[in-house]
């Protein structure tokens, strides 16, 4: 919900390509990403919309299955839930707009990180939680 709300605010306040400097290393922007991470396949001619939507739907089904199967593993499930929320947020954009709205833009001098959104942040945070969970000691059944 945070992802959809922040994207809505950006779409209402910015025109495509608008760029507002907030700090020396962070800007708010409005970019449209028709591809995947780092605009991968963004110039592929349109088929990527269906492809990435299908991947998001398939991943969502797998994640829901894993959430049900591993409900007792709280950190694991929280990481999966963050990934699911991010995937669904970007899927919503892809299905309703044909692209994903990105608006967070970090940079340092001449180095730029590709713009991203709250859904991307949730996916990244979820993956980090899954990695953290993978390093926890597993209890051996006795």
Automatic annotation (TrEMBL):
Cytoplasm among keywords: no
Subcellular location: Cell membrane
Lineage top rank: taxon: Bacteria
GO function terms (MF aspect): aspartic-type endopeptidase activity
Enzyme class: hydrolase
Membrane topology of the entry: Multi-pass membrane protein
Catalytic residues of the enzyme: 102, 120
Keywords, comma-separated and alphabetical: Aspartyl protease, Cell membrane, Hydrolase, Lipoprotein, Membrane, Protease, Transmembrane, Transmembrane helix
Function statement: This protein specifically catalyzes the removal of signal peptides from prolipoproteins.
Protein name: Lipoprotein signal peptidase
Organism expressing this protein natively: Methyloradius palustris
């Amino acid at each position: 919900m945070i992802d959809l709300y922040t994207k809505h605010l950006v779409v209402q306040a910015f025109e495509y390509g608008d760029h507002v400097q907030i700090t020396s290393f962070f800007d708010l922007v409005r970019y449209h990403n028709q591809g995947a991470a780092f605009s991968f396949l963004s110039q592929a001619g349109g088929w990527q919309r269906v492809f990435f939507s299908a991947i998001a739907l398939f991943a969502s089904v797998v994640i829901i299955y894993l959430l049900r199967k591993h409900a007792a593993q709280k950190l694991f499930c929280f990481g999966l839930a963050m990934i699911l929320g991010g995937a669904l947020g970007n899927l919503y954009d892809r299905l309703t707009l044909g692209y994903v709205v990105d608006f967070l833009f970090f940079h340092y001098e001449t180095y730029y990180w590709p713009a991203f959104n709250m859904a991307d942040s949730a996916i990244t945070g979820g993956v980090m939680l899954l990695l953290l969970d993978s390093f926890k000691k597993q209890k051996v059944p006795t």
